[in-house]
Prior knowledge:
The protein has helices at 18-26, 31-34, 122-132, 137-159, and strands spanning 7-14, 38-43, 56-60, 68-70, 73-78, 82-89, 93-104, 107-118. By secondary structure, it is α+β, with helices and mostly antiparallel strands. The strands form 2 sheets. A 5-stranded antiparallel sheet has the order 1-8-7-6-5, covered by helices on one side. A 3-stranded antiparallel sheet has the order 2-3-4. The longest helix is centred in the C-terminal third of the chain and has 23 residues, at 137-159. It starts with 6 loop residues before the first strand and ends with a helix.
Amino acid sequence: MSKRIAHDDVTIDITAPPDQVYALVSDITRMGQWSPECVRCTWATGAAGPAVGARFKAKNKGARGPAWFNKPRVTVAEPGREFAFNRSGFAIGSYTWRYVMEPTATGTRVTESFDAERPLGSAMSWLTEKWVGSSDRDADLHQGMITTLSRIKAAAEQSA
């Protein structure tokens, strides 16, 4: 197992306005439609939607093994510009996932990225790869971002 990367990003152009794209990415209840690994997300009790500090419960599942849960917190909620959340905890590191929207002449350029502020240690990385049935977790996450953005693009352009 090699050392895990601390940052990765994928960018796609979408023929839809930034506010419409933001509405899709910030509606975490639809993340299960976009992400190949996230099965479902629900806002935590008392959360009123995409606002800084709001928490949600995410259920993820890899290629094999049982599903796992985490409870991210929204860190940025700027309509039409940026939506970000952080997932952190004991033994699972700290990762921020971010969607940045930039207006273009034909719609929106969206970049999905993650930053590992506190990456998984080597033992937990090994366990995670075994848990999800992966030999290259970083490649899986990169491909997941491509898939997620492609699905968001299809939904946004279909309703634009």
